[in-house]
Automatic annotation (TrEMBL):
It comes from Micractinium conductrix. Belongs to the amino acid/polyamine transporter 2 family. Residues 1-22 are annotated as: Disordered. Residues 1-17 have a biased composition (Basic and acidic residues). The chain crosses the membrane at residues 60-80, 86-107, 136-158, 178-202, 214-235, 255-279, 300-323, 351-372, 392-414, 420-441, 453-475. Signal peptide: none annotated. Residues 57-472 form the Amino acid transporter transmembrane domain. This is Amino acid transporter transmembrane domain-containing protein. InterPro entries: AA_transpt_TM (IPR013057). It is found in: Membrane. GO terms for molecular function: L-amino acid transmembrane transporter activity. Keywords: Amino-acid transport, Membrane, Transmembrane, Transmembrane helix, Transport.
């Protein structure tokens, strides 16, 4: 064999298997060399700002997971009630894959372009118009999400008509919203001043780590509670009328109707994974930053959140069946839990879930505000990342005041959120990352077939979800 190899070499021929192996090794060496060069250039040109963070790997993972786990988790059981368990899990897995790809694509694009900000990458690739579109999308998505979070916090603390069984009203024994100290405006104002304002005053994202970790633990506890109650219901034979596969009553009896229903539900699942606007701030705060460590943060956060989503969605749907409401918290009331675990345990568990969820939402509120404040600052103050001194606090509290005012005046913005979420959020999370990796990777000759296919799916599915949601909201329902 060695003689045959020498003869082939002398004749100018090469073994294709050896050539392929050598090409793969050369490609890996080149990629490792490019990554080392990118880090060296970052160190030289940016003062190593992206490499000198103080947030540990676990805290960075918790920060990203907290951004992901928000109000969307409470709508997932209803999504499963529409799709059935099998199709629901399949849709959840598909969105998980696309989210994993798009988040890692943003990190990869930053490495290839040596620009460690979502805004900088978009500005370099698409110019001022692309940057303006990104900033407006982030503002619409984050501000809208924060308004909804504040409304839900009000619902949890004060309750909803006609009973007003909120945490505060039950604790004080006052269920009349006309009493000033349990009215929604006063309670929300107190929550903003005492809890949210101090969180928004932090100038270091890493300092949100402890609360972010607590938020992830609370979300895990909530998932465990839903699974535990579901297990008790199964043992007692009190499980809901759930379906493994969708039925005509759930999705419609025609193929067109079923497709529209699926595409209308997908934004609910997709919005549960939105966190792309915080990837770069978390990368900046990560201790001993490297692409490998950042991929670990993304992968771990998505795996943890997907497990929590699956447990809550499947458990909640199995527990309440076709009676599952759009917000699963409306099912997890003392009245809804009493037949399964008894009145005292049901009251205690309902109280714990609502208190924990309020805490989780407040942590997520602070994370969303970070990206919103940074975007508004760059839009209004000539691309400054952060205002110095009093300007930072003035902008933070002004944004909080505007969001509070809208949340009080407009008690329900679910339709607006479904529209802005399926348009602005999918633009930030799917359409733009897919288009960026296609553009940058093709230019740098790093575009594989798998990457091109996933990027195309991100762009196509994002556009399709936006169009179908708009049509279904404004045309088909009227």
């Amino acid at each position: 064999m060695p003689g045959e190899a020498r003869a082939m070499e002398e004749a100018g021929l090469h073994d294709p298997l050896v050539d392929a192996t050598e090409d793969e090794e050369a490609l890996r060496e080149q990629e490792a060399h490019e990554e080392e060069l990118a880090r060296a250039e970052d160190l030289a040109s940016a003062g190593a700002s992206v490499l000198r963070g103080e947030t540990r790997l676990t805290q960075a993972t918790a920060n990203l997971a907290t951004t992901i786990i928000g109000a969307g988790i409470m709508a997932l059981p209803r999504a499963f009630a529409t799709l059935g368990i099998v199709l629901g899990m399949g849709s959840l897995a598909g969105v998980f894959v696309l989210s994993l790809f798009s988040l890692n694509a943003l990190v990869r694009v930053s490495r290839l372009t040596h620009r460690w900000s979502y805004h900088e990458v978009v500005a370099a690739e698409y110019g001022p118009s692309g940057l303006l579109a990104l900033r407006l999308a982030i503002i619409v998505n984050n501000a809208g999400s924060m308004i909804v979070y504040l409304i839900i916090i009000g619902d949890m603390l004060v309750g909803v008509p006609p009973d007003f069984n909120g945490l505060l009203t039950n604790l004080l024994g006052v269920h009349d919203p006309s009493v000033w100290y349990v009215s929604r405006p006063v309670v929300l104002a107190a929550a903003c001043l005492l809890i949210l304002a101090p969180l928004l005053s932090l100038r270091d994202l890493g300092r949100l780590g402890p609360m972010s970790t607590a938020g992830v633990v609370i979300a895990g506890g909530f998932a465990a509670s839903v699974v535990g109650v579901t297990g008790i219901a199964i043992a007692k034979g009190q499980i809901g009328d759930f379906h493994w596969l969708p039925t005509p009553d759930m999705m419609g009896d025609t193929l067109q109707h079923q497709a529209v229903t699926l595409l209308s539900v997908l934004p609910v699942i997709s919005l549960s994974f939105i966190c792309h606007y915080n990837v770069h701030p978390i990368a900046h705060s990560l201790e001993r930053f490297s692409n490998r460590r950042m991929r670990m943060v993304v992968n771990r956060a998505l795996v943890v959140c997907t497990c929590v989503f699956t447990l809550v969605a499947a458990g909640g749907y199995c527990l309440f069946g076709s009676a599952t409401q759009a917000n699963i918290l409306n099912n997890l009331t003392p009245v809804g839990l009493a037949p399964i675990i008894g009145r005292p345990a049901g009251t205690a568990l309902s109280f714990a879930i609502r208190l924990g969820y309020c805490t989780c939402l407040m942590a997520t509120f602070a994370m969303l505000n970070w990206a919103l404040r940074e975007t508004v600052t760059k839009l209004l103050f000539n691309n400054k990342a952060m205002l110095p001194g009093p300007g930072f606090y003035a902008l933070s509290y002004s944004l909080l005041a505007i969001i509070y005012g809208v949340a009080v005046v407009v008690p329900s913005v679910w339709t607006a959120m479904s529209v802005t979420g399926a348009t602005a959020a999918t633009f930030v999370a799917f359409i733009l990352p897919g288009a960026l990796i296609l553009r940058v990777a093709r230019r740098t000759h790093r575009l594989s077939t798998r990457t091109a296919c996933l990027a195309g799916v991100c762009v196509g599915l994002g556009v399709l979800m936006g169009v179908v949601t708009l049509l279904n909201t404004f045309v088909l329902k009227h």
